[in-house]
Amino acid sequence: MSAQQASGRVVILGIYVTDLTFRAARMPSIGETIAGSAFAMGPGGKGSNQAVAAARAGAQVVFCTRIGDDAFGSIAQATWAREGITARASVVPGVATGAAHIFVDDTTGMNAIIVAAGAAGTLGAADVDAIEAEIAGARVFVTQLEQPLAAARRGLEVARKHGVITVFNPAPAMPLDDDIFPLCDYITPNESEAAALTGVPIANVDDARRAADVLLAKGVGAAIVTLGEGGALLHDATQSVWLPAFRCGTVVETAGAGDGFTGGFAAALARGEDPIAAMRFGCALAGISVTRAGTAPSMPTLAEVNQVLSEYSESGQTAQVS
């Protein structure tokens, strides 16, 4: 890290969408209408959710995206201002801000999501080049795959050029050329994304290790496979550490958990924590988020995460190393 790179600073490239969340007992079939039990509207999008998670976790956050000149774009700007996030959001006239349909199962809290990126779907390499100085001054750079791959790749390239830690959340899963993996200090897929990237079906931690080995062979520095209620695995050339999930209460909604993990992990790395401590912090943050409704609104504060970490430390929770 250069002298100019600020401890605690995270730059995130991704999309904002307004989440339209419907709760019901089940998904309707094609051609069927069913009654829902609740509806909510709020800020979302993987990149924006991760930015909110990192900001609430104490990081200085710069978020780069595109939005439309519409009501959803105004919600986005108000969200970032409220959270203290520095927004680098170009407004695209005549194109809608993104939106997401989220179905949440009333019984389990599990979800199914349709995302339309809208204006953020026009992000490109030029948007990244416009914030190169801010990336260069950060400690951690994060991106995902809801915006065009070319933008994500350019972000990883610029961060690598300036010696910034890169965190790549390959979601939603899609085919990727192998040359993107060496740009990743950390890759954070869930089990289905890891399986799609490696061809290794994942049913347990040992499967996750096999998938992580494939990712290491492709050139990533470390793979972190998130396993939902099964915890998370960090696997690199020197260690393989599995951490159980944090149980923080009744599960209400899981839609923001992966974003919470990645945002929390990035924030912890940015303030200088080692990867295992950062993974533990991300798991605790995610464990709190699933007890609350919404995606960005479910993200806890730094004090809340530290309280959970303290309680688990006192109870003797340990990681498993192999």
Automatic annotation (TrEMBL):
Protein name per the record: Ribokinase
Reactions the enzyme catalyzes: D-ribose + ATP = D-ribose 5-phosphate + ADP + H(+)
Activity control note: Activated by a monovalent cation that binds near, but not in, the active site. The most likely occupant of the site in vivo is potassium. Ion binding induces a conformational change that may alter substrate affinity.
Primary enzyme class: transferase
Keywords: ATP-binding, Carbohydrate metabolism, Cytoplasm, Kinase, Magnesium, Metal-binding, Nucleotide-binding, Potassium, Transferase
Binding site for ATP: 190, 226-231, 258-259
CDD domains for this protein: ribokinase
Species this chain originates from: Paraburkholderia graminis (strain ATCC 700544 / DSM 17151 / LMG 18924 / NCIMB 13744 / C4D1M)
GO biological process: D-ribose catabolic process
This protein's pathway: Carbohydrate metabolism; D-ribose degradation; D-ribose 5-phosphate from beta-D-ribopyranose: step 2/2
Active site: 259 (proton acceptor)
Pfam annotation, one family: PfkB
E.C. numbers: 2.7.1.15
Underlying gene: rbsK
